[in-house]
Amino acid sequence: MKRYIIVTNNILVKDMAEKNSDYELHYIGGSVQNVISMCEELFLNEKCHLAADPLAGRKARPFPYLTLILKKGEKAALEDWQRITDYSALNSARIDQYTGNSYKLNEDFRILDCSFTKAVLKI
């Protein structure tokens, strides 16, 4: 059984994880809100909790990509649910700040998210 789950909407993280890890991967080809919804679903249906949030400082700046790493074995704590709820509210308030990003700016965000995720995964 795989103990970790990567949930992301970042294609670079998906490609990196498929090549360099044996973690369960949930690639959500969509928005940050889609990643949040999948995380909530996994919290409810799997015995897992938030293990790592590579871009935890995203509160300072809106990001169009979100990668979360969950660990199986324990139910999500109240703090995990609160963090996901905060991201949902933050995303809803800021979605208009990144929906019109250029391809190049989004590429920068993808690279940054992937780089932090690699560091967390020690790849």
By DSSP (H or I, 4+ residues per run), the number of helices equals 4
Overall shape: it is: globular
Give me the count of strands. Answer: 4
Main beta sheet, described? Answer: 4 strands, mixed
Distance between the termini: 21 Å
Order of helices and strands: EHEHEEHH
Q: What structural category characterises the helix and strand content?
A: alpha+beta
> Mind telling me the C-alpha Rg?
14 Å
Fraction in beta strands: 15-25%
State mean pLDDT (0 to 100 scale).
Answer: 85
Helicity range of the residues? 40-55%
Q: Low-confidence parts lasting 5 or more residues at pLDDT below 50?
A: none
Physical arrangement of strands within the biggest beta sheet = 2-1-4-3
Describe the structure in your own words.
With 123 residues, the protein is of the alpha+beta class. It is built from four helices and four strands; from the N terminus they run βαβαββαα. Helix 1 packs parallel to helix 4 and helix 2 runs antiparallel to helix 3. It is globular. The model has no long low-confidence stretch (mean pLDDT 85).
